[in-house]
Design a protein that fits this description.
The protein is an all-alpha fold. Helix content is about 75%, strand content about 0%. It contains eleven helices and no strands. The two termini are about 115 Å apart. This is Autophagy-related protein 17. One of its GO terms (biological process) is autophagy of mitochondrion. GO terms for molecular function: molecular adaptor activity; protein kinase activator activity. It is a peripheral membrane protein.
C-alpha cells in the first residue's frame, strides 16, 4: 500500500464524519475486530526482522568497504609484483635462449670441424704408401698408419665430455625455469580465481558497490513497515477503547479469547483490558464521538489483513535485497580469500626467486667456461686437421722429390756413361801408345831403370758417395722407382692446393 494505515484511518474518519448516523457495530463484531487486531500485532516480528536486516546490511556495507579496500590494495600490489616477475622471467628466458642459440652454433662448428678432420683422416686412410718406399716383405700401409689416432680420440672424448656437461647444465637450468613457471602460473591462477566474481566485475565493485543503494531501499521499507505497525497498534488501541465503552465488552472479550476456534491463531488478552469491569470508570464519550470512533474502527478493520500482507511483502522484498547484499559480500570475501592465497604464493615465489636468478647466473658462468674450453679444443682439432693436411701434402711432396731425385740420378748416370766412354777411348789410345813406346825402347832401355815402363794403361771408375755418413750404407743408390701416373697425380694435387 502506498499510504500508511494511519492515513487511511484518517480518511475513513473523514468519510464517516460525513455519514449520518451509521449503525452501531455489534458487540460480537467488536470482539472479533479486537482479536483480529491483536493477532495482527504479531507482525511486530516482521518489523524486528526488518530492523535486523537493516542493521546487518549496515554492517555488510562496512565489511564490503574493508574487503574492497584490502583486496584492492593487495591486488594492485600483487599485479605490480607479477609484472616485475614477468619481466624477470622474460630476462631469464632471454639468457636461456641466447645460451641455447650459442650452444647450437658451437655444436654446428664442432660438427663442421669434426667433419673436416674426418674427411682429412679418410684421405690419409685411403692413401696407400707406395711399395717402393717400404721394405719388400711389409704389408701395404696407409698414410694414417704412420700417425697416432689416439690423440684424435682423446680430443673427441674431451669434447663429448664438455658437451655432456653443457647439456647437464641446460637440464638443471630447465628444471629451475620449470619451477619458476609453475610458481608464476600458480600465482596467475590464484589472482584470477574467484567462484562467482570475475576480475572485471570486482573492479566494477570497487568503483560502484550496490550495497548503499540496497541499504537505502531497505531503510525506506523498514520505515514504512514501522509506520504500518504503528497503524496496527493505533487500530488495536481503538478497538480496546471501543470495547471499554461498550457494555459487556470485557466479558465478551474474555469469553471469546477462551473459546477460540482451533484453526485460528490463539490470542492472549491478558493485561489488555485492564482490571476495570465498568464502563463508567472509563472516560465518558458522548454518542456522537462513539459513532465516529466505531465508523473509523469498522473501516480500518476491513484493511487489517491487507496491512499484515503488505508487511509480509515488504519483508520478502527486504529478504531478497538482503540476499543480494550477502551474496555480494560473499563474493568480495571469496575474492579477498583468493587474493590472500595469491599473496601467499607470491611470498613463496619471492623466497624462491633468488634461487632462480642464481641458477641463471650459474648457467651463464658455466656455459662461458665450457664454451671457452670447447673453443680451445676446437683450435686443437683444427690444428690437428691442418697437421694431417700438411702431412698428406708432404707425402705428395715426397713423391715429387723422389721423382726429382730420380731424374737427377738419371742425368748423373747419363753423364757418367758419356764420361766413361770418353775415358775408355783415352785409355785405349793410351794403351796403344804405351805398347808402341815399349816396342821402340825395349831393346835399348834397361828394365830396371823405371819399373812402370811396361805397366799397361790403368782403368778408371766413378764411385758414389753420401755426405750423410749415418745413412750412406742404407740409402746409397736406393732412390725408389715410381710410376709416372703416381707422380702426375701427386703433382696435380700439389697444384690444386696452391
Amino acid at each position: 500500500m502506498s499510504s500508511s494505515f494511519t492515513e487511511r484511518s484518517q480518511t475513513s474518519l473523514s468519510a464517516s464524519a460525513s455519514q449520518t448516523h451509521p449503525q452501531d457495530i455489534s458487540l460480537e463484531a467488536l470482539v472479533s475486530h479486537l482479536l483480529a487486531s491483536k493477532r495482527s500485532l504479531s507482525s511486530i516480528s516482521t518489523v524486528w526482522r526488518a530492523n535486523e536486516i537493516v542493521t546487518s546490511a549496515r554492517e555488510s556495507l562496512e565489511e564490503s568497504v574493508k574487503l574492497s579496500a584490502r583486496t584492492g590494495f593487495l591486488r594492485a600490489g600483487i599485479a605490480e609484483q607479477a609484472n616485475l616477475l614477468r619481466k624477470v622471467r622474460r630476462g631469464v628466458d632471454d639468457i636461456y635462449k641466447e645460451g641455447q642459440k650459442d650452444f647450437k652454433a658451437v655444436l654446428r662448428t664442432l660438427d663442421d670441424a669434426n667433419s673436416r678432420l674426418e674427411s682429412t683422416m679418410n684421405v690419409l686412410r685411403s692413401t696407400m704408401v707406395e711399395a717402393a718406399f717400404r721394405p719388400e716383405a711389409e704389408d701395404p700401409r696407409s698414410l694414417l698408419d704412420f700417425v697416432d689416432e689416439q690423440g684424435v680420440e682423446t680430443m673427441r672424448d674431451a669434447l663429448r665430455r664438455s658437451i655432456r656437461e653443457s647439456r647437464e647444465a641446460q637440464t638443471s637450468f630447465d628444471s629451475s625455469m620449470m619451477s619458476f613457471d609453475n610458481d608464476y602460473h600458480a600465482l596467475k591462477s590464484a589472482i584470477t580465481a574467484s567462484p562467482t566474481l570475475t576480475t572485471s566485475q570486482f573492479n566494477d565493485s570497487l568503483s560502484h558497490s550496490p550495497i548503499p543503494e540496497h541499504l537505502q531501499v531497505l531503510e525506506t521499507n523498514a520505515q514504512e513497515m514501522a509506520a504500518l505497525l504503528d497503524s496496527l497498534v493505533s487500530h488495536f488501541d481503538l478497538c480496546v477503547n471501543a470495547i471499554r465503552h461498550t457494555e459487556g465488552g470485557y466479558a465478551a472479550v474474555r469469553k471469546a479469547a477462551s473459546h477460540q476456534p482451533p484453526d485460528v491463531e490463539p490470542v492472549s488478552v491478558s493485561g489488555v483490558m485492564g482490571t476495570s469491569q465498568h464502563t463508567g470508570e472509563e472516560e465518558a464519550v458522548n454518542e456522537e464521538e462513539r459513532r465516529e470512533m466505531l465508523a473509523v474502527l469498522q473501516t480500518d478493520a476491513s484493511q487489517v489483513e491487507d496491512v499484515v500482507a503488505e508487511l509480509s511483502e515488504h519483508l520478502a522484498d527486504m529478504e531478497s535485497i538482503y540476499l543480494s547484499i550477502t551474496d555480494h559480500v560473499s563474493n568480495l570475501s571469496s575474492t579477498y580469500d583468493s587474493t590472500i592465497s595469491a599473496f601467499t604464493i607470491l611470498e613463496a615465489l619471492s623466497a624462491h626467486l633468488p634461487g632462480y636468478l642464481m641458477a641463471a647466473s650459474d648457467f651463464t658462468m658455466q656455459w662461458e667456461d665450457t664454451k671457452s674450453g670447447i673453443q680451445e679444443q676446437l683450435d686443437e682439432l683444427e690444428a690437428m686437421r691442418i697437421f694431417y693436411e700438411n702431412y698428406h701434402a708432404s707425402y705428395d711432396g715426397l713423391i715429387l722429390e723422389v721423382f726429382r731425385r730420380k731424374q737427377a740420378e738419371e742425368k748423373v748416370k747419363a753423364l757418367i756413361k758419356k764420361t766413361m766412354d770418353q775415358i775408355e777411348k783415352i785409355r785405349q789410345a793410351d794403351s796403344v801408345q804405351r805398347e808402341a813406346f815399349r816396342v821402340d825402347v825395349e831393346d835399348f832401355m834397361p828394365g830396371d831403370l823405371w819399373g812402370g815402363v811396361g805397366v799397361t794403361a790403368p782403368k778408371w771408375d766413378l764411385v758414389q758417395t753420401c755426405a750423410d755418413a749415418a745413412n750412406s750404407k742404407t740409402f746409397v743408390g736406393s732412390t725408389p722407382e715410381l710410376s709416372r701416373s703416381v707422380v702426375e697425380a701427386a703433382g696435380k694435387r700439389d697444384r690444386d692446393r696452391q
